[in-house]
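Project channel, design review

CF: Before we commit to the Parnassius apollo constructs, I'd like one complete example in the thread so the newer folks can see what an input/output pair looks like. Taking General transcription factor IIF subunit 2.
RD: sounds good, go ahead.
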Amino acid sequence: MTSTNVVPHIDRELDLSNTGRGVWLVKVPKYIANKWEKAPGNIEVGKLKISRVPGQRAQVQLSLSEAVLCLKDPGEQSIPKEHRLDVSNVTRQSLGVFSHVVPTSTDAVVPESEKLYMEGRIVQKLECRPYADTTYYKLKSESIRKASMPQRQVQQLDRIVQNFKPVSDHKHNIEYQERKKAEGKKARDDKDAVLNMLFAAFEKHQYYNIKDLQKITKQPIVYLKEILKEVCNYNLKNPHKNMWELKPEYRHYKQEVPVEPKEDKHSSDSD
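CF: and here is what came back for General transcription factor IIF subunit 2:
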């Protein structure tokens, strides 16, 4: 029997105090997400500006802070500062935002359990889009140039690199060639001696393939086939396809001698 490790189910309490709070689900470009990941937690990353016009959908704009724009590596392309956010309502879906707090101390007498919170219900989706200005065009052209660059490039080596030095011939190829040469150098036995070995083999079995006959006779394949063509037939059809058998004139299989019935002495005496 095999034992399986079953992870015990742990019930956790879910804090639903913020269930009525509406939150936004915002999709931002990758370059903004990378900047926000680099930003420390104590700086302002941007500002939202919401303009409401009666009878129209609210217009939302995002303006990145100078502190975020300055977070770039040497040679990195600048990113746009101003963006618009296209707003769409959430319909036929129930989406929420959840968080959890993992206890930091495990030395307490009563270990503190992991806490789960519902931070709010998603009421709107927003997609952040940059304005088509000069900074955006430069950023886009640079990303297209990097994407079009081949991942593998030919480099000219100015010295011998041992790790990638080409091999003139691989080990398995050398072993194969040596094995083929050894087979070609096998000494050919006398034809009569080979025939005797073949006839002795065919007395045991009627059909053989070429590999088995080579193991029995220990002769080169080409030489063995020359002898087999003289005294054997090669089957091309089932049920003995690709097998050799002796020609009818060379077949001398041992025949079973019929046993004559013995006379019953008792019956003869009674007669």
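RD: helpful, thanks. Strands lie at 14-15, 22-27, 46-51, 59-64, 82-89, 96-101, 115-130, 232-234, 244-246.
CF: The mean pLDDT is 82.
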